[in-house]
Amino acid sequence: MLILLTDGANTAGELQTLKAAELAAQHQLKIYTIGIGADEMLVRSLFGTRKVNPSADLDEKTLTVLPI
């Protein structure tokens, strides 16, 4: 069993997400995904206020369709 905390974005590694899931399924590895993100927020700095969206890369579609 694997508990995966992720935003779903593949930022490192050479293996595509769905291919990795297929390989895990072949080895009967059960994957539970937990999408991580946050609401948009305003961040103040010396240069003013800017809006950031920590969930911009949250890929809920891929996290819910994994064949595991």
Structural commentary:
There is one protein chain. With 68 residues, this protein is an alpha+beta fold. It has two helices and four strands, in the order E-H-E-E-E-H. The protein has helices spanning 17-26, 60-65, and strands spanning 2-6, 31-35, 41-45, 48-52. The strands form two sheets. The chain has a two-stranded parallel sheet with strand order 1-2. Strands 3-4 form a two-stranded antiparallel sheet. A hairpin with a 2-residue loop joins strand 3 (41-45) and strand 4. The longest helix has 10 residues, at 17-26. The protein starts with a strand and ends with a helix.
What key attributes describe this structure?
68 residues; 2 helices; elongated; two-stranded parallel ribbon; 4 strands; two-stranded antiparallel sheet; alpha+beta
